[in-house]
Write a structure and sequence with these properties.
The protein is about 50% helix and about 15% strand. It starts with a helix and ends with a helix. Helix 8 links the parallel strand 5 (about 175-180) and strand 6. Strands 1-2-3-4-5-6-7-8 form an 8-stranded parallel β-barrel, surrounded by 8 helices. The chain contains 12 helices and 8 strands. It is α/β, with parallel strands linked by helices. Bound molecules: flavin-adenine dinucleotide.
């Protein structure tokens, strides 16, 4: 990304919401559960699995967190009814991590219990580094209480992640490994792209050595190749790992990987609270900065007329 593009990307929060919405539509299934079900049905028809995310961040009221848990129960019921191949991904802050650990535990148990009733699975997304300790603590508590239909996400960007893998090893956790979207200070995170990639592979090696089921979540071509080489070195069968990508990203590559025989899961966010997620996706899209700058400038010129 050029310096100008990086600068524009940092200014994205100042871009008018309608512009953000227009350019981020591809990353979001829609506003309603029916929209998400339709997208998942299409993905399944194309040989892909899905994981559904109910959008909701920076929630400040207890009732809202219960409503999110209810929305997840609705997702699980709808996917079961329609016989879809989809699990769910939850953000603990949406289930009240920032408000109350106990309520968050309650909400999460609610979702995990509902998923278990359908023979389904819950993936706990990982958020910024202020939430890592509590997220891993809650994950461990659930697993120690016998809830095995739950997995977690670890971020290669964080320097602590290899230690976290070692600390979790006794649980043989199901882990989604990703680079990590939240920019963290150099004291706790790798800030250089190459260092993040190297750590991604170190973490993947450690997880595979520990016998974890791994969701390899990246669109980075080099990392996909290196990861698949490791999967093959470990002699893993098709059902013993999966690739994961975000809705709206590298769709052609996604199809090729499925055609090559890999299982691939697409992250499908839906809901009214599309803004924060959309900004993060646009900030990562290397081709988007210039486009948005032009669209914003055009809009301002029209408004100025
Ligand atoms: C299924 C899934 C779940 C995730 N869950 C989490 C999580 O719980 N916590 C967390 O911190 N992070 C999560 N992430 C985000 C992840 O950490 C990265 O921020 C994100 O995947 C981009 O990193 P990358 O490995 O794809 O590499 P990048 O170097 O960012 O991207 C590689 C290439 O992919 C394409 N690309 C990437 N992003 C876009 C985009 N938005 N639009 C268009 N093209 C794009 C470009 O061609 C780019 O060159 C998740 C990612 C995936 C795929």
């Amino acid at each position: 990304m050029s310096l100008l593009d990086s600068a524009i990307v940092r200014l994205l929060p100042a871009v008018p919401k309608p512009v953000v919405q227009r350019f981020s539509a591809r990353y979001i299934a829609g506003a309603t559960l029916a929209d998400a079900v339709a997208v998942v049905r299409d993905l399944n028809a194309g040989g892909k699995m899905a994981t559904v995310d109910v959008l909701g961040e920076e929630i400040t009221h207890e009732e809202e967190t219960r409503a999110i848990a209810q929305a997840y129960r609705d997702v699980l019921a709808a996917t079961d009814k329609a016989s879809l191949d989809a699990n769910v991904s939850v953000k603990l802050t949406a289930l009240s991590l920032g408000l109350s650990y106990e309520l968050c535990r309650e909400n999460l148990l609610d979702v995990v219990g509902a998923a278990a009733g359908y023979g389904n699975f819950v993936r706990i997304d990982m958020e910024d580094a202020t939430t890592t300790d509590e997220t891993l603590r809650l994950y461990r508590e659930l697993r120690e209480d016998g809830h095995d239909n739950v997995g977690v996400v670890l971020q290669a960007r964080l320097k602590r992640t290899l230690d976290d893998i070692a600390a979790l090893a006794d649980l043989r956790p199901s882990v989604r490994i990703c680079k990590g979207i939240y920019l963290e200070p150099a004291a706790i995170a790798f800030t250089d792209d190459e260092a993040i990639r190297v750590n991604f592979l170190r973490c993947l090696d450690a997880l595979l050595d520990a016998g974890s089921y791994v969701g390899i979540a990246t669109h980075d071509e080099w990392l996909i190749g290196e990861s698949l080489a490791r999967v093959s070195q470990h002699g893993l069968a098709r059902e013993q790992y999966e690739l994961q990508m975000l809705l709206g990203v590298r769709e052609e590559r996604r199809d090729e990987l499925v055609a090559e025989g890999h299982r691939l899961r697409v992250y499908v966010p839906y809901g009214e609270q599309w803004y924060e997620y959309s900004v993060r996706r646009l900030q990562e899209n290397p081709a988007m900065a210039g486009t948005i700058a032009r669209a914003t400038a055009g809009r301002m010129l029209r408004l100025g007329r």
